[in-house]
Design a protein that fits this description.
CATH class of the domain at 1-89 and 239-276: Alpha Beta
Number of strands: 12
Order of helices and strands: HHHEEEEHEHHHHHEHHHEEHEEEE
Strand order of the largest sheet: 1-2-3-7-8
Radius of gyration: 24 Å
Number of helices: 13
CATH architecture of the domain at 1-89 and 239-276: 3-Layer(aba) Sandwich
CATH topology of the domain at 1-89 and 239-276: Trna Endonuclease, Chain: A, domain 1
Helix content: 40-55%
Amino acid sequence: MGKHERGWVEATEKLTARLANGAEPDDDLTEAGRPDLAEALADRLRSDFPDRTTMRHAGNSYDSLGDLVVESADGETFVEAKFVASGGTRANLGQDTLTDFGLFVDATAWSDFREEIGFPEDREALLREFDDYPDDVRDWSYKSAVYDRAKHLKNAIDVSRGQNTGSRADEVLADPNASETEREAARIVNGILELDREEKLAYFDHLRAAEQDPRAIETFAHLIVCGYHTADALREHFDADLDEIKRLIETDAYRLYEVNKNTGSVTVENPADLLAGFEWEDTRVEIPEDGTSVSVVTGPPDDRRRVLNIAYNWKNKFQGIQTPSMNVFVPEA
DNA sequence: GCTGTCCTTCTTGACGGTCA
DNA sequence: TGACCGTCAAGAAGGACAGC
């Protein structure tokens, strides 16, 4: 959820609580929020909690777990509401998330590691091998000089939108009709992709040697599964809330509702189901010898359960160029 | 074995926020 | 104001699997 979206989301959540309680919609909330989505979510909550006595907005969402609280004679259920454009529980986080949140003790952050091993210099050397850049690329005093040149190389080999850049470079190199300029661009693109993969594998070697903090890993996994998918949300809940989250999950008092912004369809996820059977022993980050993603796993070797997959990616241009990032996936049960 | 569909994984572009 | 960063969401690739 982008910061710019928080306003309408909060209005929609408040509107949902009013509608679920049978109150008249508030004009200001109706204008600021998405009444169609609020109605859809309120309908679903009324259906799922027929014995509720009241529903309330939890206030500033960062002050407590859940956005909405359903009260009934049996107690409270905390509801985290997410408004999404497509399905799937996942998070896109900053490149240094795992070290920033202490999942690894004394490990170097990914961004610092690249500097230490001279990745930027090696990448620049590869980019300099191409001598047919246009006049308007910025000089090397700008960080964006790398982006300009990478973009030009992509244009030179004619990568179409959504196409895998490495696959396109391979096509060019296999094409007997490709020009020498196109081939040179393709070779450099492939060189950077290879450099990036080597760098990631080296970083994984570094992580593998680092000590891990099982409680931080467990906290991270619980927060992701419970729908806290942004750095701010993780930060707000990270230190204090693991025990409370576990209590809510154990007492079946936490739900994650996803409302599709395009269709208004509502799906509900119960973290207790996703985490059923997990005993949270020997929780760790498993790092493959050959791969660019890691997994959070828990349980003894003979009953190892995978909780999360975390992919190390670069966004924009192609791998190794612009925006390092992490994509987090919750594997299907 | 072939084909189509669904789902997961991977890659990408866009955009708002921050800061110098 | 521009450069850079973090985040969101869309779409492609490819594997799994069911139906024929």
